[in-house]
Specification:
Layout lengths: L7 H52 L3 H84 L6
Amino acid sequence: MPRRFPLQPLVEYTENQTDDAAKRLALLKARWQAAEDKLQQLILYRQEYQDRLAQASQRGMSVTALVDYRAFLAKLETAIEQQQGEVARCQADWERGREEWMAQRRKLKAYQTLEQRHHTREAKREAKQEQKEQDESARHAFERKSGKKPHK
């Protein structure tokens, strides 16, 4: 019977850690995508508001309305800059998460390589043991047929 791989608990733990890192990576990607979407919405809204300002300017508008438009556009610019910072933070978080996941995968692959080597050695040991048992059995059968005393 093959012996159990002594590092099996470590392999299982590392598999769990790798799975957890992959789940975190997926969440980080979703956050990054949501931040990107929000940024695109803000940029689109700014463009729409600039278009409205241009149309209102062509029709003529009061100074107060012009000041209000420009103040709101300035607020939109600030929101866009903040959102660009959020997108950059989300991207950096994703990059760190990706590095963590890759490190976990490398560790897992190393343990799996060790595990595979263990199983290969055990299979060879088992085959050698079986061959030894078969040889012994064949020797006993031969000795019984030939009437010789069994050797130990």
